Every structure is written in structure tokens, then in C-alpha cells.
Amino acid sequence: MSSSSSSSSSMSSSRSSSSSSSSSSRYSHKKQQRRKNKQKEDQDAGHFEYQIGMKIKAGQFVITRFLGDGTFGRVLEVKTCNATCNNYYAMKCIRAVERYIESAKIETKILWYIQDKDKNGAFNIVRLFTSFERYDNYFMVFERLGKSLYDIIKQNNYIGFPIQYVQSFAKQIIISVAFLHQNQLTHTDLKPENILTTNCEYKLVPFKGKQIWVPEREILKIIDFGGATFDHEYHSTVINTRQYRAPEVIMGYPKWNENSDIWCIACVLLELYTGELYFQNKDDLEHIAMIEKAIGPMNYRHFKNSKYKTFFNYDQKYFDQHRSYFKWNSVAPSDSAIERVKKLKTFEELIPAKHALFIDLIRKMLQIDPEERMPLRKLIHHQFFQQVFQD
């Protein structure tokens, strides 16, 4: 009797424990699901709700199709409601979130400023036609452009572009950004996603034994001026997408300037050439290690006031032994991170000798010391742009 009671009690306890565990598991799953739903609601909150054929701005535009969603809002194709012409535009609909709308208004002012300086659109900066508010949303109507260079690289399975296209793209990008610098403006977020083709027509060309897509017209436009900063304005300590970030920005120096854009452009050009990100890093320390592996060691003046100065060794004997002041092996988070840095090739190794002038162009831009980077106004005249490449 006692044994039976004990067994029954044990079974009951087991069922209770199992039930409790199952209940806890279900509760945890529901909690996670609620969190995911909340995150999705937060991501979707404030988006402009639309219908195809809907008219906006007192009937001036009609929505023709959806183009894409992003963190700041969504992009719709619109056309003018005009009996004599049907011009198509890209309308950026900013989410009804105060910080996003404020950022968009700043971008609008910057674009009007640029367009006042470049009335004929000679410097390949995206053209803004109008901006307006409707209810809680803010709208920016741009010229309708084609795919980004990143989209084309992705479509081509990350194979890169033939050198003659890299040359054409490089010259346009350098001329455009040199114009910004001439007007005391740093873009701060140059990357293939923010460089667009000007039409939607593409063609196939042979490259590396394959057929790849390239734009029918090679004319580019630079977009996304939400983070653009004038020389006299407050400089945020964090700018750029990580993989394109210049050393002085990684190190946390608040006195970065337009030379940080030059570093970004070099990273972009290497990506256009190879099809892949050059500095594929996961954090600042790995990025620093990659820079030293690819370009050479930083010296004392580069890191003496850095937020990461404790990760550097000041000892000359250490430098003589390791050819680097950065103590990467002792601060690396994993063996795989050490291996990624070890496998990184220098750009001289990536680019064949027949493209020596391209190597020289990149070398003049990827200087650790920002003051040693060649200004864009001089890079425009680099010999690389005089070279004629065969198809």
C-alpha cells in the first residue's frame, strides 16, 4: 500500500514536472513570438499606406507600383497626372517616425543646396524634384533611376565588372564626390548600394568565361545624403557602413574630414573589380587587423589618442618581431577571426600586374593617414583614366 502510494506520488510528481516544463516551454515560445510580432510591428509602424492608382499631392502624382521597403520608409514609382506628359519618378515615403522625418528634412535641404550649386546636373548627383508632407508622413520625389551597382554585382553572382567599366565608374564617382568636397560636404556613406545606374536597360557581355549584365548606359548617380555632413557641422563619431569605414573613424577620432570619403571610394572600387567586399570584418578590432595586414602597420601617431590604444604595443622590440603594433592574436575573439585576417590578400595580390595603374590609384587612396590620401581633385587626372582597355 505504501509502495503503491509512493509510486502513485512519483508518477503524479513526474506528470506535474512534465506538465510544468511543457507549460513553461509553451510560455517561453509565446513570449518569443510576441517579441517577434512586436519587433515586426515596430518595423512596420508609420509606413505610408497606399494603393496602386492612388493620387497624391493634390492629384499631381499617381502611384503606379511598389519599388521597395527600407528602414526609413518605402519607395513607390509615381507618374505625373498630366495630359501632355507622363513622367515617372521614385517617391520616397518616410515613415511617420520623428527621427526619420527630421533626417529626411535635413537630406532635403542638402539636396536643394547641391542642386543650387549644380543647376545643370553635371556632377551626377540624384535630382530631387519636390518634397512635401501629408498627414504624418514626409515625401521626397526623385528622378527615376535604375539598379544600384550592388544589385548588378549580386545579379552577376559577385563576379565584379570588366576593368573598362571599373574605369568608367571610378572616374564618375571621383568627379561627383570631388564636387561635394569642393562645396565643404562629406557624403559619409559611399558604397555600391548608394551608386545607381541612370536607366533600366542592361546588356550581357562576356567576362571571365561567363556572360554578365552591365548597364546599357554607363552613367551613374550618387544617392542617399541623409548622413552627409558639412565641414562646419557637428561630426558624429560613427559614420559609414562598417566595411567601408576609414581608420580614423574606426579609431573614434571626432576630427575626421572629407578624406574619409576617399577611403570609402577605394573600398568601393575594389568591390567593383573583384565582386566582393574587401574588408569583410565583423568588428572594429578585426577591421584594424585587416588594415594592418593589407596596407601596413599603424604608427604611434595613428593610435595614440584612439579609443583602442590599449590594444596596441608601443614597444619597438615588439614591432621588430611582429611588424605590427596591434596585438591582434591576443585580442582576437576566435581562431576563425585570426584565420580570416590571415587569409586576406593585399590589393596588389588581388589585382594582376597588367592593371598596375589601377593598383597605383588604389594605393594613393588607401593610406592609413588621412592626410596622405591623394585629394580627389588630383586623382581625376591619374594615369589610370588615360589608359585604353580592350574589350
Feature tags:
391 residues, Transferase(Phosphotransferase), domain 1, alpha+beta, six-stranded antiparallel β-sheet, globular, Phosphorylase Kinase, domain 1
Instruction: Report on the biggest sheet.
Output: 6 strands, antiparallel
Tell me what the CATH architecture of the domain at 149-279 and 344-385 is.
Orthogonal Bundle
- SSE succession: HEEEEHEEHHEEEEEEHHHHHHHHHH
Major β-sheet strand ordering: 1-2-3-4-6-5
Span between termini: 94 Å
Number of distinct beta strands: 12
Would you tell me the overall average pLDDT? 89
Characterise this structure.
- Keywords: ATP-binding, Kinase, Nucleotide-binding, Serine/threonine-protein kinase, Transferase.
- The chain is an alpha+beta fold and 391 residues long.
- It is 42% helix and 16% strand.
- Mean pLDDT is 89; it is low at 1-20 and 37-41.
- Among the domains are: 55-143, Phosphorylase Kinase, domain 1 (2-Layer Sandwich); 149-279 and 344-385, Transferase(Phosphotransferase) domain 1 (Transferase(Phosphotransferase), domain 1), CATH 1.10.510.10.
